[in-house]
Amino acid sequence: MQTVRTNGITTHYERRGEGRPVVFIHGSIVDRSMWAAQLDALADDYTVVSYDLRGHGHTGGSAVDRYTIELFADDLAALVDALGLDRPVLCGLSMGGLIAQLYAARHPDRVSGLVLADTFTPPILSRGEWLLRRVVLPFFTYPVRLVGYERVEKVNVWVTERLVAGAGGDYETIEALREDAPVMSTSEFTKVMRAMARFHEESVDRSQLTMPVLVLYGENELPFVKRHAAALAAALPDVEVEEVPGGGHASNLDNPAFFTDALREFLARVYPATAEPTS
User: Fold this and answer.
1) Contacts for 99 with CB less than 8 Å, ≥ 6 apart
2) pTM for the whole thing?
3) What is the pLDDT of residue 245?
4) Of 251, 135, 125, 146, whose CA–CA distance to 193 is shortest?
5) Residue 256: which residues within 8 A CB-CB, separation 6 or more?
6) DSSP character for 180?
7) Which domain holds residue 44?
8) Residue 235 lies in a domain
9) Number of separate domains in the chain
10) Angle at 222 between CA 221 and CA 223, to 5 degrees
11) 116-175 tens-digit pLDDT
12) How far is CA 82 from the centre of its chain?
């Protein structure tokens, strides 16, 4: 694992391979290890980078009182600059997809392509999503203070499975990834949840997302995430949409072979074989 100073924090990251760059952005309450299968598969052909977001994994927390997706996007910009990555493809899942969207919309000339997996986009906010972001996510912070976020998340996964079978995906894999990872503090959990809950208030100019985009979502995803995938498909000029068979909310873990193959095909289109490798 390597470290670099970015936007006032020490970011822990992994960089492998040579070739055109691909940056992987993980979801909330996990860390960069969720992308291990994709890094293993693609490092022979590309420069692949994954990193622990602020508040997560070995990067850990910071003294900033309030997190926003904009702050996470600024962290990403600092990482790309510090590592000298030339117009990478960004691949973000769930919260990572929010960060990738905002970064790409603000720096379209610095992005070659965009992969948005199991994520959503502003300003869509149905009644169910309002309940999720304004009630459910903020409520999580109270029991987390008492029993920890892992126990609360298990309850949330159990409830989700009762509502939409398979949406929770392979939760045992998530638990296994956390065995060797640092535990997130309650204060960091709270700041991350609030950033997610308020994302619809942030401005993402989708007219700037003219680069090639691949939207992926699990077959068993929550209905509102599928609606957001359809909205992205309708709004963007150069977009492909694929459903990951058997996948839940972390489709790259639930069906890594299909996810990685779809990603590889997309990268081959964005980075033709005749292009000069740069990173």
Assistant:
1) 25, 53, 69, 72, 73, 76, 92
2) 0.86
3) 97
4) 135
5) 37, 38
6) T
7) 2-270
8) yes
9) 1
10) 110
11) 999 988 865 555 565 555 555 555 565 565 556 565 565 555 455 545 656 666 667 777
12) 20
